[in-house]
Each structure stands twice: as structure tokens, then as C-alpha cells.
Amino acid sequence: MWEMIDSRTYGFMGSKEFTHRTRVPGGWLVKHKSFDGISIPSPNALSFFPDPDSRWQVEEGMQKWELVDKSGGVNSAEKTFRLRVPGGWLVRVGYFVGERLSMAMTYLPDGNQEWTVADK
């Protein structure tokens, strides 16, 4: 059973994003879906992160993706986000070229939360 942990909408009839999680042996599967306006779903991303002791507790409104970096020009853009999880971060990158979007997500171990991000 998938549990929603974050959702966002950008403007009226704008894009929508959803992040869900489900418990699996040894940790969690996390998926992120992006919808572009009223069209069909855009690319999705899926990642596993280890949490054998089930330490990840989600409180309503507490799980939000943080913008880490962005770049781009007139017809393209790249954005990197991170989400704090026990023992590290989930990192998601979206690439926009013209009307196409691709997305990837991975787990970055960082038990001491040492990864700092400069203000953009």
C-alpha cells in the first residue's frame, strides 16, 4: 500500500507532483510522479533506501523536497532536489528539454547530515 508523503501543485491547471512511499523488507520504496498540467503523466522516479529499524516517521506537512540546484536556458532546465530520510537523503533530478521531461532518483547515505547546500 502506497502512502502519500508530499504533494504540490503549481498554479491553476499547472503541473502537479506527488511523492509516495511503501514499506518493503529492509527499508522503503519511494516513488515520485510528475504531471504536466492536464496532460497524461510525465516521467516518474523510484528509489529504495535502507531503514531496517523503521525509523522514518512521517508527520503531515513535514516531508518536503528542498531545491538544491537549478540551471538552464530558454528551452531547457535542470533541477535537483533532496528529501531528508533516516541515514541520508533521497536525491531527485529533473531534466526539461523542450516539452520533454526525464527524472531520476537515488539514495545518498549521509548518516551525520553533513551535506550542506549554499543559498541559491
Walkthrough of the structure:
The protein has strands at about 5-10, 15-25, 25-35, 40-50, 65-70, 75-85, 90-95, 100-110. The protein has one domain. Helices cover about 0% and strands about 60% of the residues. The protein has a 4-stranded antiparallel beta sheet with strand order 1-2-3-4, with no helix packed on it. The chain has a 4-stranded antiparallel beta sheet with strand order 5-6-7-8, with no helix packed on it. With about 120 residues, the protein is mainly β.
Please write out the topology.
Elements: E1 3-9, E2 16-24, E3 27-35, E4 41-50, E5 66-72, E6 76-85, E7 88-97, E8 100-109
Antiparallel strand pairs: 1-2, 2-3, 3-4, 5-6, 6-7, 7-8
Index terms:
0% helix, 8 strands, mainly beta, globular, 120 residues
Order of helices and strands: EEEEEEEE
Helix tally?
Answer: 0
Beta fraction of the residues? over 45%
Q: How many beta strands in the DSSP annotation?
A: 8
SSE class: mainly beta
Reading side by side through the largest sheet, how are the strands ordered?
1-2-3-4
Helix content: under 10%
Uncertain segments are: none
- What is the total number of structural domains? 1
Mean pLDDT: 86
Q: How widely separated are the two ends?
A: 37 Å
Rg over CA atoms, rounded to whole Å, is 15 Å
Largest sheet composition: 4 strands, antiparallel
**Anisotropy-based shape:** globular
Question: What's a quick, concise take on this entry?
Answer:
With 120 residues, the protein is an all-beta fold. The protein has no helices and 8 strands. The protein has one domain.
